[in-house]
């Protein structure tokens, strides 16, 4: 061998080879933002090195970012870097190794529940996951046409007149994507639940205090 080149990734900005791909990603996001595309920020779930690289380059480009880290399962160096860059860091009690058993989605016009199903189905078809998690559509009791339809055994859907609710974003009595939502729930062995106004406010209070 007459010529040998070695690339040492341990002396990059964050000390990881993840810098190689992340600088490309953030550069592309930066370009899209300058073109006035609707890219608000960047986020990722990471076991350490990816989050450090993402937040370092986003901080440099002044792009908002957020990362989710597994609680008590990363090194101090991996934790200090994202926090030190001043971005938003969340700790989650998980290891990111498995697909969730359940996914809960709020339901108003019901496009989101089908979008989640379609995404998981595509992942399954590509061989990325073995199964689709069970989907849960959560509705406000004051605007609950899908919940009532589910409780009737999926018989004779009827729109309702939505009443005022603290969950104003899902205050919809005649959802556009009702057929697709039913398809998604039936094919994921999903369920529909409702929350009263009191339950909504209790949950909000608990979230603020946590």
Automatic annotation (TrEMBL):
The keyword Lipid biosynthesis does not apply. One of its GO terms (cellular component) is cytoplasm. Keywords: Pyridoxal phosphate. GO terms for molecular function: catalytic activity; pyridoxal phosphate binding. It holds the Pfam family PALP. The keyword RNA-binding does not apply. InterPro entries: Ser/Thr_deHydtase_PyrdxlP-BS, TrpB-like_PALP, TrpB-like_PALP_sf. Residues 3-74, 88-208 form the Tryptophan synthase beta chain-like PALP domain. Its cofactor is pyridoxal 5'-phosphate. GO terms for biological process: amino acid metabolic process. Gene3D superfamilies: 3.40.50.1100. PROSITE patterns: DEHYDRATASE_SER_THR (PS00165). This is Threonine synthase 1. It comes from Cucumis melo var. makuwa.
């Amino acid at each position: 061998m007459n010529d040998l080149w070695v690339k040492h990734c341990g002396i990059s900005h964050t000390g990881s080879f993840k810098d190689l791909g992340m600088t490309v990603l953030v550069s592309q996001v930066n370009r899209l933002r300058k073109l006035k595309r609707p890219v608000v920020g960047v986020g990722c779930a990471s076991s350490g090195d990816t989050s450090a690289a993402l937040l370092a380059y986003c901080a440099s480009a002044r792009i908002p970012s957020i990362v989710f880290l597994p609680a008590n399962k990363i090194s101090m160096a991996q934790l200090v870097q994202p926090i030190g860059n001043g971005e938003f860091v969340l700790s989650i009690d998980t290891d990111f190794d498995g697909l969730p058993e359940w996914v809960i989605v709020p339901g108003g016009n019901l496009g989101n529940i089908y979008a989640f199903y379609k995404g998981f189905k595509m992942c399954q078809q590509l061989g990325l996951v073995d199964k689709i998690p069970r989907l849960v559509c959560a509705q406000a009791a004051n605007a609950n046409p899908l919940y009532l339809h589910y409780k009737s055994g999926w018989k004779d859907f009827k729109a309702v007149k939505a009443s005022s609710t603290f969950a104003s974003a899902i205050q919809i009595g005649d959802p556009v994507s009702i057929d697709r939502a039913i398809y998604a729930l039936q094919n994921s062995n999903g369920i529909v639940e409702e929350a009263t106004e009191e339950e909504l406010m209790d949950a909000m209070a608990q979230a603020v205090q946590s």
